[in-house]
Amino acid sequence: MPFNIACGRCRNCKEGKTGICLNVNPDRPGSAYGYVDMGGWVGGQPEYVMVPYADFNLLVFPDRDQAMEKVRDLTMLSDIFPTGFHGAVTAGVKPGSTVYVAGAGPVGLAAAAGAQLLGAAVVIVGDLQEDRLAQARSFGCETVDVSKGDPKDQIEQLLGVPEVDAGIDAVGFEARGHGDGSSSEAPATVLNSLMEITAAGGALGIPGLYVTGDPGGIDEAAKIGALSLSLGTGWAKSLSFTTGQCPVMRYNLGLMKAILHDRVQIAKAVNATVISLDDAPRGYQEFDKGAARKYVIDPHGTLAA
């Protein structure tokens, strides 16, 4: 089941824009389980989940035994794999592309794996934490430690030029500064950096989350989602931008086939780690500290059985 809920009947759903369904949220287009401003649907991490419009939303695996062998990988189809892949697709990644992914959390790692699946020549992943960067290197990515300075200079060392064909923001509004400013929140840092290092005529895929309300924002503008973007840079370079919730159903069938036919090992790429529902609070605490893994909650002990 996708993390976003779609009715399958409205204009947007029929056009494949299932991340912005018009019928499942009274406040605005788009809905999801257990998230603020997403329609009031309860969370998706209990023992059982009611799936609205299940006839439309559920993806059926063709063979149960085959699915159970790859269930860690297939679990990623609910959210991070399509979301990361969406970032790569909307950034225009194609065979031979050079790609920079900002953020080595699960979505960033999924974006990197997605870029490889699309045929990228080089995928560079930037982050502040060495263990996350090591996870990116474990499946063939180059890495940039943004705590050591501007990614542009490190990209030039890797590629011979200070820019890439495609940029992906897998960080969002909780971004931090580069170099000496990496300890303080700077929500526009990643977007401005991507505009600088993406080649003219290129594109930015932005699966990273940006919000219209952030009570913990660093200033009054940030608290309402208004960021100091260098839009002139984007305009001058004719860059394209794609933001918003991933329309999971646009990708999950194809990605399922890629998993089942061994074209991608997404669970390995994101270091999928299975925990019980009772361990979920600990998992959240560790993830909040930057653990280099994607936690998968197994409330019924299915894998152990």
From TrEMBL:
Keywords: Metal-binding, NAD, Zinc. The keyword Transit peptide does not apply. Gene3D superfamilies: Medium-chain alcohol dehydrogenases, catalytic domain (3.90.180.10), NAD(P)-binding Rossmann-like Domain (3.40.50.720). It holds the Pfam family ADH_zinc_N. Its cofactor is Zn(2+). SUPFAM superfamilies: GroES-like, NAD(P)-binding Rossmann-fold domains. Belongs to the zinc-containing alcohol dehydrogenase family. This is Formaldehyde dehydrogenase, glutathione-independent. It comes from Pseudonocardia sulfidoxydans NBRC 16205. The gene is fdh.
